[in-house]
Amino acid sequence: MSESDKVLARRELGGTVDILYRDIGDGTGAHGPIMDMPRHTTAFDYNAGGSPVYIGKAAFGSAKSAAVWQIQRLVYTGDNLTDILWADGDTEFDNVWDNRAGLSYS
């Protein structure tokens, strides 16, 4: 069975795809969640070269204008990823995705 056949449900939000369930691959046809953690949507923002610069996570259905996002900024030297920084210097879900470029990162 191909990978696309194994995917039972997915939710597309903006430019993101979150796969929720997949065939567990034991030959029984049983299906299970990919992870037992709370599910989040993920947003990406890319530079002109096509590399991701910002990655944000929030609960499904969150507005990009709400202060409920965990945001990372990826730093490159040339084509090499050199650092991953956090908005406000922490991993809290308290930032606004729409304001990502103006936030402080460390």
Polypeptide structure, described:
With 106 residues, the chain is mainly beta. The protein has two domains: 36 residues, no CATH class; 69 residues, no CATH class. The chain is 4% helix and 50% strand. It contains one helix and eight strands, in the order H-E-E-E-E-E-E-E-E. Strands 4, 5, 6, 7 and 8 form a five-stranded antiparallel beta sheet that branches. The protein has a three-stranded antiparallel beta sheet with strand order 1-2-3. The longest helix is centred in the first third of the chain and has 4 residues. The radius of gyration is 16 Å and the shape is globular. The protein starts with a helix and ends in a 10-residue tail after the last strand. The N terminus is likely disordered.
